[in-house]
Design brief:
Blueprint: H1 13-27, E1 32-37, H2 44-58, E2 61-66, H3 77-80, H4 91-96, H5 106-127, E3 130-135, H6 142-154, E4 160-166, H7 173-184, E5 188-191, H8 197-208, E6 211-212, H9 214-221, H10 227-239, E7 243-246, E8 249-252, H11 263-271, H12 276-288, E9 291-292, H13 294-301, H14 305-317, E10 321-324, E11 327-330, H15 333-340, H16 345-359, H17 366-375, H18 382-398, H19 400-413, H20 419-432, H21 436-449, H22 454-467, H23 471-481, H24 489-505, H25 509-526, H26 529-545, H27 549-562, H28 576-584, H29 588-605, H30 610-624, H31 627-637, H32 649-661, H33 678-682, H34 686-697, H35 701-715, H36 728-738, H37 741-757, H38 761-775, H39 778-791, H40 794-810, H41 814-831, H42 834-845, H43 869-879, H44 884-891, H45 895-909, H46 917-923
Parallel strand pairs: 1-4, 1-5, 2-3, 3-4, 6-8
Antiparallel strand pairs: 7-8, 9-11, 10-11
Helix pairs in contact: 1-2, 5-6, 6-7, 8-10, 10-11, 12-14, 12-15, 13-14, 13-16, 16-17, 17-19, 18-19, 18-20, 19-20, 20-21, 20-22, 21-22, 22-23, 23-24, 24-25, 24-26, 25-26, 26-27, 27-28, 28-29, 28-30, 29-30, 30-31, 30-32, 31-32, 31-45, 32-34, 34-35, 35-36, 36-37, 36-38, 37-38, 38-39, 38-40, 39-40, ...
Length: about 900
């Protein structure tokens, strides 16, 4: 019998040197990505073997993994092969296994795991240069491709080499997107083609022990330069004893038949030398997957384990199986596929069905059992359905698509006794997979046929409508659910809370307050923290929207008290209202601390309010004059899953800063327009604010004023009321410039009412500014500047000084005007607000007023002086050797935000790697 094939790697010296040299660049701190492409059997894995040896010699820590065809529907399966050596303490696997119950959707769960993987990679890189290798990327699951795509975007800032190996065709959409990202990022690509004839000759010489003659090489040419094909072809000749060596030259014997015309034939010939039992067992093992589990195979085939072990040993000796780490796998997937194809389809389906049923009684991973059950295409018996119901919550999280297909089949064939629970699980699987419309249709159909399960199904229907963003329908369904007979007080309280909270977001504040008050009363009566929390959050949200901030703050503080021991809903954030109140009460440092808690809480539980808190944080930085930090938050927040429509507001926030800095060049129409999602209701003024300022930059102050006045009239009394005063200073300024007394009076009244309800420094300053500009009283406007300084809002302080300067100039008080102008310009320059500086100076020219003593110019664009306070802190920690995840934990920021800061630091310091930051800081 033919012995195991001896591995030899020839003809790839240039490719090996190239891929190894990229590793040396990573050691020097220049992160790199390389894509190795080639047809099956061409030598991609052998190239990676050679590269790994070079990386180890150059000091890279190597983590190598591979995607598997049978795990294409297992989330993060491919990238988790990097973690095999960390099974005991790996936080990513713990997070993957933590989902005992499927919540509202996979998107936030996947986002949390992706962030955890990126943090882990960052930790590895902090310890030294790393090479991360994934073979067979064409089999990678969608979630792993997302992680790889993210890594490609940040690899340049880390001592990281990312090596991906894949077949060129066929490709799914995820791999196409990743490849496009690589091309855009100018990643290195190594395409392995056919072995040159000289290299093919060397491979054959190694196998036969002599130089191949012309007759043998003519047959080898038929293998197309593919090393695997050449190996199998020559091996088949050796098995047939059809090669003769004469004078150190090997050629086929005169009587030898031609070699197999195909790889399949060559492998089939190899099987002829195996024992009968091996020829029977190996195709069935191949049908079960690339990994051979001896005990499971014996159970499935109902054979003695010793017999299966003998077959495995024989196959390993014969070169069909090989050992990878602690697993037995087929030497090449092409070999496995050829073997599996020997089984008729019906026999293969029956084998998979039996495998699934046999493994039900074992501790085999539920993902593998589900795969076998699904692939078996058979009816599911009662025992299997019981198992599926028991593991469904975990299965939905771990293998969402497989779980969905299996539950759909099960629900369609179950008897009436099990069908209701399976329908509910099927709906949960649809929700988790982001197919909310299908889940809604399924539940509505079930409601027509299963009135006895009314409440459970209506809860699912509420979740489906919520996931689609149809909050109006959530309220309709919840109100119908209130009519369900025999509701418990807890159930009624939660429904009232659901009605109230969704009505807040729908801008139905009176209805929201009524429902919230009922939930609060029930929750306090039965001492239920979650129901009480819903009531407090709803009533507090209404009071906040009406501008009664102290009252809202007190209610939000009670939420934290009643839920101090935890809570059980991923649609509830006990911190978010508290943070919003603190922002509007000018307690910005406290608000930032609470937002850190809110964001951390949402990330941990995959909560739906993560986007809400990220927008609030960007808004806080906008008000506090930390515009660079605000831009970073806007950029990093856009990719966050957001079911309730807050993150699109980040486009407007970023555009506002760009307009003030004179750097916004995009088409303002490209910014997402308001829609009927809660985010648009809560921050409805931001989109027209951007459009208005763009009109002003284009010389149309009248059009700009009309947009802002319209926004104020439309949004007053609604969800945006609490922050609507942000646009009042621009209305006051534009009204004065175009002489619109009606608009001026309107904004004076609106700002006075805002300050009356809650006389914070910012609101009082806004009221003074509007009144002072309308009454042309510079002293009142200058007092407004002092209030804005007290509130910690430098941009608004600058606006007050600008308007005061103009009024002083109009009164002929040149010295006061110049002083106010200098104060305004100094503040604008500190923010980089060049457009505002130019406007302020231009408005004063009519009065012959020029700036007095020049304040500091805009912050430099490069060098250490260009770094913001946050960037300086990040740079110092990087220089001390901390990883991004360590820095994120210390500064209560996300890893992606830190990565954005690191990228900005590298650009401003003019360096290419984080490893150079310490030296650059010393030079600067």
């Amino acid at each position: 019998m033919q012995g195991p094939l001896t591995s030899v790697f020839v003809g790839r010296d240039a490719e090996v040197e190239r891929v190894v040299s990229l590793g040396r660049r990573a050691v020097a701190g220049e992160g790199m990505v390389v894509l190795v492409e080639g047809e099956p059997g061409i030598g991609k894995t052998a190239l990676l073997d050679a590269a790994v040896a070079g990386y180890a010699a150059d000091g890279l820590s190597v983590r190598r993994g591979a995607a598997k065809e049978l795990q294409r529907q297992v989330p993060f399966a491919a990238v988790c092969t990097w973690l095999d050596s960390d099974r005991g303490t790996d936080p990513v696997r713990a997070l993957l296994r933590s989902g005992d119950r499927a919540g509202d959707g996979a998107a936030t769960h996947e986002f949390a795991i992706t962030e955890a993987i990126l943090d882990l990679v960052d930790t590895w890189c902090a310890a030294g240069p790393v090479a991360l290798i994934i073979d067979d990327v064409h089999w990678a699951d969608r979630q792993s491709l997302t992680v790889l795509n993210r890594l490609c975007g940040v690899v340049g800032d880390s001592p990281l080499l990312l090596v991906l190996a894949a077949r060129p065709l066929p490709r799914d959409t995820g791999l196409v997107a990743l490849t496009a990202e690589l091309v855009e990022g100018r990643a290195s690509t190594i395409r392995l083609g056919a072995l040159p004839e000289q290299a093919a000759s060397e491979l054959v010489r190694h196998m036969v022990g002599a130089a191949p003659g012309p007759g043998l090489m003519r047959q080898v040419v038929g293998a197309g330069g593919n090393p695997l094909y050449i190996t199998e072809l020559v091996a088949s000749l050796l098995r047939d004893e059809a090669i003769t060596v004469v004078a150190d030259t090997a050629d086929p014997t005169d009587l030898a038949d031609g070699p197999s015309a195909s790889l399949a034939g060559a492998i089939a010939q190899r099987l002829e030398f195996l024992s009968r039992s091996a020829r029977q067992v190996l195709p069935m093992a191949a049908a079960l997957g690339p990994t051979v589990y001896v005990a499971e195979l014996a159970a499935v085939l109902d054979s003695p384990i010793l017999e299966i072990w003998n077959v495995v040993t024989e196959a390993t000796d014969g070169g069909l199986l090989t050992r990878a780490d602690s697993e037995l796998i087929f030497r090449h997937d092409l070999i496995r596929q050829v073997l599996a194809d020997q089984l008729p389809d019906s026999l293969r389906a029956g084998l998979l069905r039996r495998a699934g049923q046999i493994l039900l009684a074992t501790d085999a991973p539920i993902e593998r059992i589900a795969y076998y059950l699904l692939a078996g295409e058979n009816e599911l018996d009662t025992r299997t359905l019981d198992w599926l119901v028991a593991v469904a919550d975990k299965l939905i999280v771990r293998v969402p698509e497989i779980a969905l297909q299996l539950l759909q089949r099960a629900a369609g064939m179950a008897d009436l006794g099990m069908r209701p629970i399976l329908l509910q699980l099927h709906a949960q699987a649809l929700l988790w997979n982001g197919r909310a419309a299908e889940a809604e249709a399924l539940v509505r159909t079930a409601l027509l046929n299963q009135p006895e399960n009314d409440l459970e199904l209506r809860w699912l229907l509420m979740q489906a409508c919520h996931a689609r963003g149809d909050l109006r329908e959530v309220v309709v369904v919840a109100e119908e659910a209130l009519a369900t007979p025999n509701l418990t007080e807890e159930e009624a309280g939660r429904i009232h809370g659901m009605i109230g909270l969704n009505n807040v977001f729908l801008n139905r504040l009176d209805a929201a307050e009524a429902a919230g008050a009922k939930a609060l009363a029930i929750g306090e009566a039965i001492e239920n923290p979650l129901v009480t929390g819903y009531g407090l959050l709803t009533v507090g949200g209404v009071r906040y929207s009406h501008g009664y901030l102290e009252e809202a703050l007190e209610l939000s503080s009670r939420i934290l008290a009643v839920l101090e021991n935890g809570f059980g809903s991923d649609q509830f954030d006990p911190y978010v209202l508290n943070a919003h109140c603190l922002i509007e009460l000018d307690r910005l440092a406290e608000a930032e601390a609470v937002l850190h808690k809110s964001i951390g809480h949402s990330r941990r539980i995959h909560g739906v309010y993560l986007g809400t808190s990220l927008v609030a944080k960007a808004r806080l930085y906008l008000l506090a004059g930390r515009w660079d930090d605000a831009v970073v938050e806007c950029t990093s927040g856009l990719s966050v899953p957001d079911a309730i429509g807050y993150t699109p507001i980040l486009h407007s926030l970023s555009a506002l800063i760009g307009i003030h800095r004179g750097t916004f060049l995009s088409d303002p129409q490209a910014i997402p327009a308001p829609n009927d999602q809660p985010g648009s209701s809560s921050y409805g003024q931001f989109y027209p604010w951007v459009q208005a300022l763009m009109l002003e930059t284009q010389g149309d102050p009248r059009g700009a004023l009309d947009l802002l006045v319209d926004a104020n009239e439309r949004l007053t009394g609604g969800l945006a009321s609490s922050t609507l005063y942000y646009i009042f200073p621009d209305i006051a300024r534009l009204a004065a410039d175009v002489g619109d007394e009606a608009a001026a009076r309107s904004v004076v009244a609106a700002s006075a009412e805002s300050a009356r309800r809650q006389p914070t420094a910012a609101r009082t300053g806004t009221a003074l500014l509007c009144r002072g500009v309308a009454e042309r009283d510079p002293a009142v406007v200058r007092t407004a500047a002092a209030d804005f300084r007290k509130a910690g809002r430098p941009f608004y302080e600058a606006q007050a000084y600008e308007n005061a300067a103009l009024l002083f100039a109009a009164d002929g008080r040149g010295s006061d005007a110049r002083s106010a102008l200098d104060s305004a310009v100094e503040l604008y320059n500190g923010l980089g607000a060049s457009w505002d500086t130019a406007r302020a100076v231009a408005r004063m020219r009519a009065y012959g007023i020029r700036r007095g003593v020049r304040g500091p110019r805009n912050r430099p664009k490069s060098g250490r002086a260009a770094l913001t306070d946050t960037e300086r802190k990040v740079a110092a920690l990087v220089a001390e050797g901390f990883s991004n995840s360590d820095i994120a934990a210390q500064m209560f920021l996300s890893g992606r935000t830190i990565q954005s800061h690191v990228s900005n630091i590298l650009a401003k310091l003019g360096i290419g790697s984080r490893r150079d930051i310490a030296a650059a800081l010393s030079r600067n």
